[in-house]
TrEMBL record, chain A:
Protein name stated in the entry: Autoinducer 2 import system permease protein LsrD
Membrane-crossing segments per the record: 26-47, 68-94, 106-131, 138-161, 181-209, 240-262, 268-289, 296-313, 319-339
One GO MF term attached to the UniProt entry: transmembrane transporter activity
InterPro entries given in the database record: ABC_transp_permease
Protein's organism: Microvirga aerilata
Pfam families according to UniProt: BPD_transp_2
Membrane protein topology class: Multi-pass membrane protein
TrEMBL record, chain B:
Source species, domain of life: Bacteria
Signal peptide from the UniProt entry: 1-24
Subcellular location field: Periplasm
Chief localization: periplasm
An annotated GO BP: rhamnose transmembrane transport
Protein name: Rhamnose ABC transporter substrate-binding protein
Entry keyword set: Signal
Native organism: Microvirga aerilata
Length: 348, 331
């Protein structure tokens, strides 16, 4: 008997990555955005002597904190291949409901629950129509955009709800130094509640998207919904949860914005849906689904906030500002596509 | 990808050069509109610039949000606070929502007034109304009298809805002031609900049922336009006149056809002018804007501050053949 000689070939090394992590990081969208953020920061401080003032910068964060909190949830939704255009209308409806509750004499905890609850309900309604009934999300949420704001408009007419309790003002106007148990450092006098909420929400969504199985499922659904379905991913349920989260964050934004304004009109947060989507797209989230990161959206939110505040300091009219943001968005979407074209042509 | 960064820096540098001109000594007044691109506020800005030139050493920063929202105005207010303007004069989209932001401005030493559309009492020192209910009521009677021979004859009122607060207040003022105009006789008041077609029908009915009516007074822009159309369509130009409160852009046709000789509405140029004057006097500490005091407002004379810090600028401005075309371009 001859021994069976198994000729084992030497193990072939397959690299984990094609380029080193450092090089990949350098070429990433987030690093580009970081560079843009720093550039805008420097440019703003050169352009206006008032830019680098802690109080001014603190005020400036209100330009993006509330919108960004929705943008984080929107990021997950867009990655999964869906979109929610009704977020601003949810704010209007949630704010109206809070206004009605305040008129009825409810206290701050009840008002916050009403705001979050209405947000969740609206999200559930969208989710049901998209995930269960199977309608396209863009159509559904354009519809609910009119529906939710329409209800607010019927309830309010040209009137406004006011008279929120004094303790309610803290969400949108409060600073961390207002906390009795918070360490009394001068830094906390300029740090607002909304900034802290912004950071916390970013962390929660960052972990959810990048560190959990749920997050991987969201990417899988966005990249190939059929493959995801055949792999046993509960596509419907995941999408439903994403709509719920978007609704919830819209409700939370409604709490912050209503508290900041101290009054509710049916035009509240008009046009915010586009700014929220802009933030996500500027943050590198592919509008076609399947890719995007939370750190990118954090940076995009800061970029948009700094640009609008910086232009505001120079008294650039809002219309010009919109043009600027629009150009920035087109540039940011077009550049990668153009570069890709050039590169693939060079390779051919 | 570096192009984006380059572009950002390039734009910012360009903007940096633009902003270098402002000096520290000038009084900076932020004039905040309900929204930009609205003729009424553009006209107010014209008046504000006129006041700035007249006073000297004043820079008016005309600004506002793109849409008429409170959030947009708060962003604008924050930007003005950040620039350390000396005063903010605002026409508010929401009387309450802008109060917290304006209070913060006041804490940082900025004088805040509102004009046109008021801000809640806590958020400003003075609110400048374009006119007062009494002055408006009086102006309507004055216009009616000037369309009648010797100021004597019958007139009727075409109002908005029977529950419109503004119109009802003005009509009540007119009735109160009527004894001042002997011979002027109010026949009836009809309501067109501020709808073009209903106002038209009501005015038509009025001419039939009250043939003695020689003047229709409509203290609403919809009504005054509809009534002048009725007079024109019925071929009664020269026999029946229409007057009241209207917009020059809408009323220019009626003035030229002869259906109306004169009508009135507040003048946005004067309003912007007066707001700037008041803001300047407050910054210069010439006045504290206390109720009961008077503030010098240049060519508009002295403006008296009433209860709750509210002030009325002047009589509504009268428009006729001579000036209507000029203002029609504005609003």
């Amino acid at each position: 008997m001859t021994a069976l000689v198994v000729d084992t070939p030497p193990p072939r090394r397959i690299p984990d990555r094609l380029s080193t992590p450092f090089r990949r990081l350098l070429g990433s969208w987030e690093v580009l955005l970081l560079a843009v953020t720093i550039a805008i920061f420097i440019a703003n401080s050169l352009a206006s002597p008032h830019f680098l003032d802690p109080w001014n910068l603190s005020d400036a964060t209100y330009n993006f904190t509330e919108k960004a909190m929705i943008a984080f949830a929107m990021t997950l939704l867009i990655i999964s291949g869906e979109i929610d255009l009704s977020v601003a209308a949810i704010i209007a409806l949630a704010s109206t409901a809070m206004g009605a509750a305040a008129q009825a004499g409810f206290g701050t905890p009840a008002l916050v629950s009403v705001g979050l609850g209405v947000g969740l309900l609206c999200g559930a309604f969208n989710g049901l129509l998209v995930a269960r009934v199977g309608l396209p999300s863009i159509v559904v949420t354009i519809g609910t955009m009119s529906l939710f704001r329409g209800i607010a408009q019927i309830v309010l007419g040209d009137q406004a709800y006011g008279g929120y309790p004094a303790s309610f003002a803290w969400f949108g106007q409060g600073y961390m130094s207002d906390f009795p148990w918070w360490p009394a450092l001068p830094v906390f006098e300029v740090i607002t509640f909304e900034m802290v909420a912004f950071v916390c929400v970013a962390l929660v969504f960052g972990i959810l998207l990048h560190q959990t199985a749920f997050g991987r499922r969201v990417y899988a659904i966005g990249n190939n919904v059929f493959a995801a379905q055949f792999s046993g991913i509960p596509v419907e349920r995941t999408k439903f949860v994403l709509f719920l989260l978007t609704g919830l964050m819209s409700g939370f934004a409604a709490v912050c914005l209503t508290s900041r304004l101290g009054s509710t009109r049916h035009t509240i947060a008009a046009g915010w849906e586009l700014e929220v989507v802009t933030m996500a797209v500027l943050g590198g989230v592919s509008i076609l689904g399947g890719s995007g990161t939370i750190p990118g959206v954090v940076l995009a939110a800061i970029v948009m906030g700094l640009v609008t505040f910086g232009l505001g300091l120079l008294n650039v009219p809002g219309i010009v500002m919109s043009i600027f943001i629009g150009l920035l968005l087109i540039l940011v979407i077009a550049l990668p596509i153009v570069f890709h074209r050039i590169r693939s042509r060079a390779a051919a | 990808m570096k192009m984006l960064a380059k572009l950002a820096v390039g734009t910012a540098l360009g903007l940096a050069l633009l902003s270098g001109a402002a000096s520290a000594q000038t009084v900076k007044i932020g004039l905040v509109a309900k929204s930009l691109g609205n003729g009424f506020f553009e006209a107010a800005n014209k008046g504000a610039q006129e006041a700035a030139k007249e006073l000297g050493g004043v820079e008016v920063i005309y600004t506002g949000p793109t849409s008429t929202t409170a959030e947009g105005q708060i962003e604008v207010i924050n930007a003005l606070i950040a620039q350390r303007v000396d005063a903010i004069a605002i026409s508010a989209n929401d009387p309450d929502a802008v109060v917290p932001a304006l209070k913060r401005a006041a804490q940082r030493g900025i004088k805040v007034i509102s004009w046109d559309s008021a801000v809640g009492k806590d958020g400003r020192i003075v609110h400048l109304n374009p006119s007062s209910n009494e002055l408006i009521g009086n102006m309507c009677l004055k216009l009616a009298a000037s369309h009648l021979p010797d100021g004597k004859g019958d007139f009727a009122i075409l109002s908005a809805t029977s529950t419109s607060t503004n119109q009802n207040t003005w009509i009540a003022e007119m009735k109160k002031l009527l004894p001042k105009y002997p011979g002027l006789n109010l026949v009836t008041t009809v309501y067109g609900d501020d709808l073009a077609d209903k106002s038209y029908r009501e005015a038509q009915g009025l001419l039939k049922s009250h043939p003695n009516v020689k003047v229709i007074v409509a203290p609403t822009t919809v009504g005054v336009l509809a009534a002048s159309q009725v007079v024109k369509d019925a071929g009664k130009i020269g026999q029946v006149y229409v007057t009241g409160l209207g917009l020059p852009s809408e009323m220019a046709g009626a003035v030229h056809s002869g259906a109306t000789k004169e009508f009135a509405i507040w003048n946005p140029i004067d309003l912007g002018y007066s707001a700037t004057q008041i803001a300047y006097r407050l910054v210069k500490k010439e006045t504290e804007g206390k109720p009961g005091s008077e503030i010098n407002a240049g060519r508009m004379g002295k403006i008296k501050i009433g209860d709750n810090g509210e002030a009325a600028m002047a009589d509504p401005f009268v428009y006729d053949k001579k000036n209507v075309d000029e203002f029609a371009k504005i609003f």
